[in-house]
Design a protein that fits this description.
1 helix; three-stranded antiparallel beta sheet; 77 residues; 66% helix
Amino acid sequence: MDYLKVKDHPGLIRDKKSNAILNNDQIALNKYKEERDRLLKVKNAVDDTEVLKKDMAQTKQDINEIKQMLMKLMEKN
């Protein structure tokens, strides 16, 4: 493939065949991938936290129901 350098943009090249401008900056690509992965991990952590909050709320509700049932059982005795 033949490429031409894009004037005043050292990280860009133009493909002669398709006339497309391509990013040739490997460092910028690696930084982008690292940031994307970091943001994905943060999103997953937030999602996990939300699941834990819902589970905790359900557990509290279950404990309260068990507590009420025990109170009723104690009243009968």
